Amino acid sequence: METLIIADYRISAPALAMLATKGSIFLFHHPTLNGPLHGHPDLFLFTNGENRVVAPDAPPRLLSVMEKYGIQHVKGLWPAGTKHPETARYNAAALPDILIHNPMLTEQTILTLYTTGEIYPVKQGYARCSTLLLDSEHLITSDKGIARVWQSAGKEALWVQSRKIILPGYDYGLFGGCCGIHKKEILLSGMLDTVEEADEIRQFAANCGFSFIEPREGPLQDVGGIFIFSSTIEKV
User: Fold this and answer.
1) Residue 37 falls within a domain, yes or no?
2) With b meaning 16 or more CB within 10 Å and e meaning fewer, what string describes 171-194?
3) What strands lie across the sheet with 74-75, from one edge to the other?
4) Number of domains in the chain
5) pLDDT tens per residue, range 152-194
6) pTM
7) How many Å apart are CA 157 and CA 74, to the nearest integer?
8) Strand, helix or coil for residue 19
9) Within a domain: 102
10) CB 95, CB 131: distance < 8 Å
């Protein structure tokens, strides 16, 4: 089975070369969204590892490539729009039974997936971009509010600074937007050593059974997340 990787079309050449060793790459670009975030797939695509919800105003090419690889998904009811808070509707950090997001913003179709799950309400709309949710007990986040909510539930959170994460057009990016998880590997958009907490991050992830796959050079860049899906079609 092939692997489909969805990433910002502006991701660095070293990161692109690294991702190419892991699967087939679809470079995301929204043709009508203006501004620095128009290459960020996490504004239009939600996944919790089992379910995928795509915004109705997502680029048709995204839908086509997901269908080509047999990636099952449903269309959301609400558009992702062109500005905050609408652009945060699909940007939730999630596992099949856990949702971390601002529930005042969460797209309705996503909420219906969690009628019996755990919902952690936070102020941050861009929860997925802020957060790498490792498992049901551990996360790494750039958002102090998310860390507090998670820790108040008796779970472990590692807060990391964002100031050295690159996001053109903004002062800095967010940690979750630099990452994608495939099985027990965390794929990164840049070198982890370019942030101050690199050793802490590595140890925290290792304690949860994860390892990092990094490009050979370049800083961490917020690229709206790296989405990795296993094709359900034997040969694409």
Assistant:
1) yes
2) eebbbbbbbbbbeeebbbbbbbeb
3) 45-47, 52-54, 74-75
4) 1
5) 999 999 999 999 999 999 999 999 999 999 999 999 999 999 9
6) 0.96
7) 31
8) helix
9) yes
10) no
